[in-house]
Design brief:
The protein is an alpha/beta fold. The chain has helices at residues 17-25, 45-48, 68-76, 97-107, 140-146, 162-166, 177-186, 214-230, 239-254, 269-275, 279-291, 293-311, and strands spanning 3-9, 32-38, 59-61, 83-88, 92-93, 113-115, 118-121, 127-130, 135-137, 158-161, 192-194, 200-201.
Length: 312
């Protein structure tokens, strides 16, 4: 069997579960195992899978929990496919996504991970889509910086080789379960792939840095800073560095702690232009160039207080 799709549901009212299951059925693929886990009793699986051969491959795992880490770990033990896709009730596959992915995985059995586009609705109600092109990477640094994976550290749009996921201990109560699982899995991968075809609708994708709780924000800052040092990305600025800098400034805003992130050794204007095409990133790096890290953090606090005062 090529693929197992975990559908985790924590909602006892089953809101979104029907949408996810039917989007899988509409793909028209037979070699797929659906593994339902969580609040699944009372949902009419036969009706949702009516007329589909997927009903014969359906596996239900009765494990109640509000923690997706627990549910996915329980479901993973029942997966039989060579690859695993971890969805949450409410996610929806775009038409023709599975045929494209199944064909690509069949043609490239060396892939350890494959990523497809993801769409969501932002807080203004506008529909957003993030695509990555069709590419292959042979190391985690190339994938992380080349596809700007730090900007989309979700599990929902990534298909992993099952043996890799099975080797990772479950992160129950992790400060950032998705990122910790993703980084550990990527560290075990050798071949990474992205596709611009197909995609997934993921309602929970629009989480801004300012919306993160303190534990999640600090977890990302610590790990991103560590990765920058580990991969020796400290010489000149990169888009990943600018992204991490945004986390650092938000953390300085919430605390009085000294910055963890060190300024790049070289921060010339030419370096800033090459670092990122994102205007916000370039503006931050330019401010860092003129002010230095400590003064930039102070400036960010003062600016925030001024905006807060004038909004009120």
């Amino acid at each position: 069997m090529t693929l197992s799709i975990i559908v985790a549901n924590t909602d006892k009212e089953h809101h979104g579960l029907d949408t996810t299951v039917r989007s899988i059925v509409m793909q028209g693929c037979d070699d797929v195992q659906i593994v339902g886990v969580g609040s699944i009793d009372g949902f009419d699986w036969e009706e949702a899978l009516s007329g589909s051969s997927l009903l014969a491959l359906l596996t239900l795992v009765r494990r109640e929990s509000d923690d997706n880490a627990v549910l996915r770990d329980a479901a993973l033990r029942h997966c039989q496919g060579h690859y695993v896709w971890m969805l949450t009730a409410g996610d929806s596959l775009a038409p023709y996504t599975l045929p494209v992915i199944m064909a690509r995985l069949g043609a490239h059995p060396d892939y350890d991970m494959m990523e497809c586009p993801v769409s969501w609705t932002d807080k203004s109600g506008a529909e957003c889509t993030m695509t990555f092109g069709s590419a292959e990477y042979n190391d985690i640094t190339g994938y992380w910086t080349g596809s700007q994976a730090f900007d989309h550290p979700w599990l929902c749009n990534k298909i992993f080789r099952r043996s890799l996921l099975a080797s990772i201990p479950v992160k129950v109560d992790a400060d950032d379960y998705e990122l910790s699982t993703l980084l550990e899995t990527l560290d075990r991968c050798h071949v990474f792939a992205t596709t611009e075809e197909g995609g997934i609708w993921h309602p929970g994708a629009d989480i801004q840095i300012e919306q993160m709780d303190d534990r999640q924000l600090h977890y990302r800052l610590r790990h991103y800073t560590s990765l920058i040092e580990q991969w020796q990305l400290t010489e000149t600025p990169t888009a990943f560095y600018a992204h991490t800098l945004r986390h650092q400034l938000e953390w300085c805003l919430r605390t009085r702690h000294q910055p963890q992130l060190q300024a790049p050794r070289q921060l010339r204007r030419s370096d800033i232009r090459q670092a990122s095409t994102d205007r916000a990133h370039r503006r931050l790096l330019t401010q860092l160039h003129h002010l230095g890290m400590n003064n930039l953090c102070r400036y960010y606090r003062i600016q925030h207080r001024w905006k807060k005062k004038h909004r009120s």
